[in-house]
Structures are given as structure tokens and as C-alpha cells.
TrEMBL record:
Organism, as annotated: Capsicum annuum
Top-level taxon of the source organism: Eukaryota
Gene Ontology terms, MF aspect: carbohydrate binding
Descriptive protein name: Protein PHLOEM PROTEIN 2-LIKE A1-like
InterPro entries: PP2-like, PP2-like/Lectin
Pfam families found in the cross-reference section: PP2
Length: 209
């Protein structure tokens, strides 16, 4: 699955929002002098600096990840969502009914900071009427050194409902001396159960410390 980030022209600043006005290219954003607020690039990617570690952090919205069958309106809808009333709307994937789940994407890990431990999480909301999730989610994280981390996420039905939660896919660190840095890749799937699944909303993937 190949979901490259394609920087686009920034939209005008909303003076009542906490989203700052952007340079036109991702490379310019990474050189932003004092990003003390969250930076949103055309509804596709959020960038901020962790105050404690000064590490570069990113949130990949759903234009940057691939969801199986997301083009079929009977299986997935794409409503707009605002975290705050003054924010630009972002697109989420809301599951209607599907037999299996497959989500994946990648990110250029050379944009990340070295020497800090990152966590990669799928951010989702579980609706009140969640069903069809008797089998655990399987996750794969391909780290910048090329190694894999595999996890099994049990008891999805028992997790908190009706608010955004993080499903952690794994952790990694880029050592200062590492020369060859591969793309970060992530996959989440559940294909064993043959019951219709519903009740899952996908916001995106967070790469943060």
C-alpha cells in the first residue's frame, strides 16, 4: 500500500483558530522557527513540536491512509469532522457495514527526530452500537530500520465508546547514527470473522512521543 504525503498550498489563516498559516511545502514546515501551535496542511497532515522532547510529531488524516472498500458508500461514508468549532473540517471514515477491515499507509521517516521513542497509534471512535468484532485486530508496524512489530488488539468490544481513543500499533526510535532510514509503514486488519462489522470511525494515524 502506497499512500505518499503530497503537500498542497496552505489555506488562509483563521484568526479565531489555533491553526497557524503555513508555508507551501512540507520541507518549509519542518524548518518553521517556533511552531508553538499545531500546524495543519490543507486538512491532510498536522505537525507540532513536543514541548518536553522538542521532537517533531505528526498526525496523518485519512487522505494519507488507505482503507479497503472506502470508495463504496454502502461500506464506508466520509463525513466531515471538526475538533473545535473554529477549526477547518477534516474527513473521517465512518464504517457502515463491512465483512473485513484493512487499513494501511506509510510515512517518510526521515522527517522525524532522532534519539526519541515514538509511538504510532490508530485513532478511532467506537460507536454505541458496535458489532461484529469477535476476533482481535491484527496490526503490523514496519519500523525505519526495516524490522516489524506485530500486535493483536483484544477486546475491541470492551473499549471506551463514543470518544476518540488510540490503538497503539508499536514504538520505535531512530538512533542518531542510523544512516539508512526506511519508510515507516503501518497496517491494521481483521479478516477472520465473517460477520458484518459496524460501529467504527477512523480519524487517522498519530506519530508522536
Amino acid at each position: 500500500m502506497n499512500c505518499p504525503i503530497l503537500p498542497k498550498r496552505a489555506k488562509p489563516e483563521n484568526s479565531s483558530s489555533n491553526i497557524d498559516r503555513l508555508p507551501r511545502k512540507l520541507e518549509e514546515i519542518l524548518q518553521y522557527p517556533e511552531p508553538n501551535v499545531e500546524i495543519l496542511l490543507d486538512g491532510q497532515i498536522k505537525y507540532w513540536i513536543d514541548k518536553r522532547t522538542r521532537a517533531k510529531c505528526f498526525f496523518l488524516y485519512n487522505k494519507n491512509i488507505h482503507v479497503l472498500w472506502s470508495e463504496e458508500s454502502s461500506k464506508w461514508s466520509r463525513p466531515q469532522y471538526r475538533e473545535h468549532t473554529s477549526d477547518e473540517p477534516i474527513q473521517v471514515y465512518e464504517m457502515e457495514t463491512v465483512l473485513s477491515l484493512a487499513v494501511g499507509g506509510n510515512f517518510d521517516a526521515t522527517k522525524l527526530s532522532r534519539g526519541v521513542e515514538y509511538k504510532v497509534s490508530l485513532v478511532v471512535l467506537l460507536k454505541k452500537f458496535l458489532s461484529g468484532w469477535e476476533f482481535p485486530l491484527q496490526t503490523i508496524l514496519v519500523k525505519p530500520d526495516g524490522t516489524n512489530e506485530n500486535r493483536s488488539i483484544e477486546d475491541l468490544m470492551e473499549k471506551t465508546k463514543r470518544e476518540w481513543i488510540k490503538i497503539q500499533l508499536g514504538t520505535f526510535m531512530i538512533p542518531p547514527e542510523m544512516e539508512s532510514i526506511k519508510n515507516l509503514e503501518f497496517y491494521v486488519h481483521e479478516r477472520k470473522g465473517r460477520k458484518l462489522k459496524m460501529g467504527l470511525v477512523i480519524k487517522g494515524v498519530e506519530i508522536s512521543v
